[in-house]
Write a structure and sequence with these properties.
It contains seven helices and two strands; from the N terminus they run E-E-H-H-H-H-H-H-H. The chain is an all-alpha fold.
């Protein structure tokens, strides 16, 4: 199983046989160092597709976990034990990332240089500006009423308004997830068809924009839920 689809051919540290990012040398069977730019998809011998069979991924994970288990290296050198631990650590990271659809697409976009931690756009999507403005007004009203010790009827009215907004934005979130799922299918089809770089880039741009909307809406929902919890 290759770890990096773009790894440069190297030589096994033990026997000198050529390697290309495999977990183990095909000639002598020794565990190999991690490539500098390891690819989580290739770590499991998978293409960079977004539609992953969860059962298949789990099976590959368990098979590799057993091969890299410390019990298999009790008589190995200290260097080999260190290499197995490094591989095991990244195996766990890779599995956690690819097992979650959102983490999976974020990882793909990060590899394409389109999505870096802490740099996601947080501007309100244009189509939601009016709704976000109304939501913020409702949140301000609820906070003010709570601080002023508003009467029960007024608090109930404001709470009902926010509960309705919460439901509305959760539905929006479901819509974004459905859009992402459709884009995943389009991305996988593009890979199967060997689509050119321009076509792939357009799909990546659309996925990135959808993720930005998703992140923004999730933050809105979290804010509403926080205020509702504090009002109960």
């Amino acid at each position: 199983m290759s770890v990096s689809t773009t790894s440069v051919a190297a030589a096994c540290w033990n026997c000198g046989a050529p390697t290309s990012g495999e977990h183990f040398c095909s000639a002598c069977g020794k565990v190999q160092p991690l490539p500098r730019d390891a690819d989580y998809f290739a770590f499991f011998g998978l293409p960079q597709k977004l539609g992953i069979d969860a059962a298949d991924l789990e099976q590959r994970f368990h098979a590799l976990s057993w091969k890299l288990h410390p019990d298999n290296f009790v008589r190995a050198t200290e260097a080999e034990r260190k290499l197995s631990l490094e591989r095991s650590s990244q195996l766990n990271d890779a599995y956690r990332t690819l097992a979650d659809p959102i983490a999976r697409v974020e990882y793909l976009l990060e590899r394409e240089g389109m999505r870096k931690e802490g740099q996601q756009k947080q501007q309100a999507p244009p189509e939601l500006l009016e709704e976000v403005f109304e939501l913020n007004e409702s949140l301000d009203e609820l906070r003010s009423a709570r601080q002023a010790g508003g009467d029960a009827a007024e608090m109930a009215r404001l709470t009902k308004t926010l509960e309705s907004a919460e439901k509305h934005f959760l539905e929006k979130l479901e819509g974004v997830d459905a859009e992402l799922n459709a884009l995943f299918v389009s991305w996988d089809a593009a890979l199967d068809a060997s689509a050119d770089a321009s076509a792939r880039r357009k799909l990546l741009d659309r996925m990135n924009a959808a993720l930005n909307r998703r992140s923004y809406i999730r933050n809105l929902v979290a804010g509403v839920q926080k205020e509702l919890a504090e009002s109960n």
